[in-house]
Amino acid sequence: MEIATFQDLLDAFQNRIAFFHDMGSRLSDHGLEQIYAAPFTEAGTDRIFRKRLGGQTLEAAEAEEFMSALLYHLGVMYHAKGWTQQFHLGALRNNNSRMMRTLGPDTGFDSIGDWSQAAALARFMDRLDNEDKLTKTIVYNLNPRDNELMATMIGNFNDGSIPGKSSTAPPGGSSIRKTGWKNRSTPCPIWVCSAASSVCSPIAGRLCPTPATNISGESSARSWAAK
After folding, report:
1. How many CB atoms lie within 10 A of CB 34?
2. Phi first, then psi: what are they for 220, rounded to 5°?
3. Residue 192: beta bridge partners?
4. Please, are residues 62 and 48 in contact by the beta-carbon 8 Å criterion?
5. CA of 135: how far to CAs of 85, 138, 159, 207, 221, in Å?
6. 31 - beta bridge partners?
7. 28 DSSP β-pair partners
8. Pick from 57, 53, 42: which is nearest to 2 by CA?
9. Residue 225 and residue 222: Cα distance in Å, rounded?
10. In degrees to the nearest 10, what's the CA dihedral of 25, 26, 28, 29?
11. pLDDT per position as a tens digit, 95-107
12. In sequence order, what are the residues at sequence separation of 6 or more whose Cβ sits closer than 8 angstroms to the Cβ of residue 227?
């Protein structure tokens, strides 16, 4: 299909989501530095999209507005299909430019980033929740500094409608995951509770291993999400 407007782009995403849904898919997976949740308008986003299609370079604020709009609309689509949306947040990718040229992107030269996460994540989830369009959500935090931040944030959006509607889990990558567990002092299992609604939800995956447990928090989270 020809894509000339932002609505055309959304229609294309909708078509692909419908295709994968028919094939049995129920999960989306986004690898981002951080969530994007800047204010946007449909007219403004369309103007930005046409500008980029025309080969012009976007200002940083324009790029953030476009990504915010796209992420919001994808969240609405996932909710309509009953999918779980997954976000891997905080990776600083392709740090070694020589190996990037030699091997290509995402070939083992990524590391932990230090972006601010809380405010944009709150705005993103709150907008969807306020419109009753927040689907199941798993946040994989890549920076141990933000473990408690993520755990408390997802607790704000567990309303009891679905057990563990919003969850956080250890990231993929055994070295990061094992280190995170080794340094974690919080006993498991971990539950996030909402004082307002008296609802408690478990964090997806196990955040500290036991001898009888496969220490793949991410695979545990994916199994939960598929239910």
Report:
1. 17
2. -65, -40
3. 201
4. yes
5. 7, 10, 12, 23, 15
6. 88
7. 85
8. 53
9. 5
10. -90
11. 999 999 999 998 9
12. none
**Any idea of the CA torsion for 218, 103, 34, 55, to the nearest 10 degrees?**
-140
Angstrom distance (rounded) from CA 23 to CA 103: 32
Tokens of 59: 């200002």
Q: In this model, does residue 203 exceed pLDDT 90? A: no
Q: Which two tokens stand for residue 40?
A: 């946007």
Sole residue written with tokens 């894509």: 3
Distances (CA, A) of 170 to 24, 82, 113, 147, 223: 25, 23, 15, 9, 14
Query: Are the CB atoms for 20 and 59 separated by under 8 Å?
Result: no
Query: What digits encode the pLDDT tens for the residues 15-66?
Result: 999 999 999 999 999 999 999 999 999 999 999 999 999 999 999 999 999 9
What is the DSSP code (8-state) at residue 106? S
Residue in 125, 32, 133 with CA at minimum distance from that of residue 87: 32
